[in-house]
Design a protein that fits this description.
The structure holds 2 protein chains of 2 kinds. By secondary structure, chain A is an all-alpha fold. Chain A has a single domain, classed as Cytochrome Bc1 Complex, Chain C, CATH 1.20.810. Chain A contains 15 helices and 2 strands. The longest helix of chain A is centred in the middle third of the chain and has 33 residues. Chain B contains 2 helices and 10 strands, in the order H-H-E-E-E-E-E-E-E-E-E-E. Chain B is elongated.
Chain lengths: 359, 163
């Protein structure tokens, strides 16, 4: 113990660890009826860390290009515990997106995007979009049947855009068809480009949270300061946060080991698409919207209209801090709440509809 | 609430030693749980990383290799082959004898070469040299002779096995 404390003193004199500790103890986190939502950003972060670690492990045996499926098969069936690492990576990807969605909607309904936290909202939205591109690009890497068709369909969507759509799709694909060149460039995107974008952006996002502290919902803001409760960040909130991480780890371990991610059949461009094929759940809503517009309006016009509407909705969602009319703190922003509920119900209804339409 | 009863702080909480043992117990339980988690994550990751090592070890358990058509090797020449994972060499000497040796230098593991003109086995990395008949280290840094295998010539090839 004495040796430990003398090592600590040695490091503290050089790094100022005590200052950090005092800072963490001084920092407080508000506590109220809705503070359970504060954990979801941390849970998203936890799953990102899991992705980084399991991703590096998969990188050790995965080979992109023509060997993509074979190396994934080796990881799943020949390398010890390869199935578990791969399953954890796939499950954590889905859980990460789910956690980000919960985080985003809780931030929205707590009106935490208002001044001075606009950049927190915007950086968070970009992080979500990057995460979805992570999901889309990672889905192709095993080069199985599902991955092949999901990517084919996904890249056919920009095709309906006039003039530039076709050029974009061909360029992203690396040719007119999804093949080993597509896997290779999606791989570069997935393991180099996207992390290089994501990590600094995440740093910025976390720095903003640190700078402005946790936002409180309008109902809480209306209370006089004396009635507001808070707990110290260190150790109280950090311990609770770590407990959440432990729960997240246990849920992931159970899912990954009890429902190992399927390998599927190798992609074959001559085989017809299997019936009932559909994208991952987080793309189901946009999948259904495009399908509906395709039915309502004939030809490429319907899909283009669906895409335009979806993009407009996203832009409105993105810009909410700028036009939320009751944006001043302390006021209940009813209109924004209705908009949030509307967006949430559209997402839920179209997702359920999409799954129901499969059967 | 209005009654004022003087209460010493020790009355409500258990004696200090109890607190100390409870605290020690909680720390020990947390430590044990931490060790369990570290093991449950560390063991699969270790086995995952060690997979190719285990495969190579299984390969090195090979005791015999048949080199097809190797009996046609001309006098004074060499054939490189793999004995399990190890690079090895089969030399057909001028006197018609056959010698099979490991080709891994016993100094720092470079692959050695047979030089028929000088009739020595030479390692280019640090200049170590071996006798091409016995595998004995004759000059330079190698500490041990090259491992010798048994070479048996048949009508269809050469069978190399451990001694």
């Amino acid at each position: 113990m004495k040796a430990l404390s003398s090592i600590y003193t040695w490091a503290d004199e050089r790094l100022g660890l005590d200052d950090l500790l005092h800072f963490a103890q001084k920092k407080r986190v508000p506590e109220h009826a809705h503070s359970a939502w504060y954990y979801w950003g941390g849970i998203s972060l936890f799953f990102f860390l899991v992705q980084a670690i399991t991703g590096v492990l998969l990188l050790i045996y995965y080979r992109p290009g023509p060997d993509a499926f074979e190396s994934t098969r080796q990881i799943t069936y020949e390398i010890h515990f390869g199935w578990l690492i791969r399953s954890a990576h796939s499950w954590a990807a889905n859980l990460m997106i789910a956690a980000i969605f919960v985080h985003m909607f809780s931030v929205f309904f707590m009106k935490a995007y208002r001044k001075p936290r606009e950049f927190g909202w915007w950086s968070g939205m970009v992080l979500l979009l990057v995460t979805m591109v992570f999901g889309f690009s990672g889905y192709l890497l095993p080069m199985n049947e599902l991955a092949f068709f999901a990517t084919k369909v996904g890249l056919d969507i920009p095709n309906s855009l006039p003039v530039i759509g076709h050029k974009i799709a061909t360029l992203v694909r690396g040719g007119p068809e999804v093949n080993e060149f597509t896997v290779q460039r999606f791989f570069a995107l997935h393991v180099v480009v996207l992390p290089a974008l994501f990590i600094p952006l995440l740093g910025f996002h976390l720095w903003l949270v640190q700078k402005h502290g946790n936002a409180v919902p309008p109902a809480e803001e209306a209370k006089p300061p004396a009635q507001r409760k808070s707990i110290p960040f260190f150790p109280n909130f950090m311990m609770k946060d770590l407990a959440m991480w432990l729960i997240a780890l246990n849920v992931l371990a159970l899912l990954a080991s009890m429902f190992p991610w399927d390998l599927g059949a190798p992609a074959d461009s001559l085989k017809p698409a299997p019936t009932g094929i559909h994208p991952e759940w987080y793309f189901m809503s946009s999948f259904q919207v495009l399908k509906l517009f395709g039915q309502w309006f004939p030809g490429a016009a319907g899909e283009a209209l669906g895409m335009i509407l979806f993009t407009l909705g996203l832009v409105m969602w993105f810009l909410i801090p700028l036009y939320d009319p009751s944006g001043k703190s302390g006021q209940r922003a009813r209109w924004a709440t209705y908009f949030g509920l509307f967006a949430l119900s559209i997402l839920l209804v179209t997702t359920i509809w999409a799954y129901a339409a499969l059967n | 609430m209005s009654k004022t009863v003087s209460q010493s702080p020790g009355q409500e909480s258990p004696p200090d030693t109890d607190v100390a043992t409870r605290r020690a117990f909680v720390w020990a339980a947390l430590g044990a749980a931490g060790v369990c988690y570290a093991g449950a994550i560390g063991y699969p990751v270790y086995r995952y990383l060690a997979s190719p090592v285990e495969r190579a070890e299984a390969e090195s358990a090979v005791t015999e290799v048949t080199l097809k058509d190797a009996q046609k090797l001309p006098l004074g020449s060499v054939l490189m082959f793999k004995f399990g994972p190890r690079p090895s060499m089969l030399i057909h000497h001028q006197d018609g004898s056959w010698v099979a040796l490991s080709a891994v230098c016993t100094h720092l593991g470079c692959t050695v070469q047979y030089q028929p003109a000088r009739n020595v086995i030479h390692c280019a990395c640090h200049g170590g040299e071996y006798d091409p008949v016995t595998g004995k280290n004759i000059s330079g840094p190698p500490p041990r002779p090259l491992t010798r295998y048994v070479a048996k010539v048949t009508d269809t090839g050469v069978v190399v096995s451990r001694t």
